[in-house]
Amino acid sequence: MEEQSQHWDEALYNELNLYFKSRIRELLEANPALLQRQQENKLQLADLVACMPLEDQNRWHRFLHLDQLKLNQDLQNHLEGKGEPFNPGTRFGNPFGTFSRQDLDDDLPKETW
Fold it and tell me: Where do the segments described as Disordered lie (predicted)?
């Protein structure tokens, strides 16, 4: 995989967020074993990632890298008194980019996220 930059890319983050929201739903619908594990509350995120093709796994790692950059940025802003304040219910503002928690609850089982 190419070297990951330290640059926060909100557009790419939101694009990947939307992509994986859809991709995870597709994986659960297409794989009865995963769906069964999810219904039994035994499904781990690593199980889903392992079922993805290598290209999606690489995208996932890029998404996690961007998520870490976002967390670091949010923490720095919090320490400096800038940006969205931390709230235990929503963390730093809306943690789902353009999605609300209700959007996720409507589309996916809570246990997936």
Answer: 80-113
pTM listed for this prediction: 0.67
| Structural domain containing residue 85 | 10-112
Q: Which residues contact 84 (CB under 8 A, 6 or more apart)?
A: 74, 77, 92, 93
Structural domain contains residue 39: yes
Provide, for the chain, the percentages of residues in helix, strand and coil under a 3-state DSSP scheme, each rounded to the nearest 5: 65, 5, 35
Q: Tokens standing for 92?
A: 């730093």
Q: Which helix (DSSP H) or strand (DSSP E) does residue 79 occupy?
A: helix 54-79
Q: Number of folded domains in the chain?
A: 1
12-55 per-position pLDDT tens digit: 999 999 999 999 999 999 999 999 999 999 999 999 999 999 99
Asked, for residue 43, whether it belongs to a domain, the answer is yes
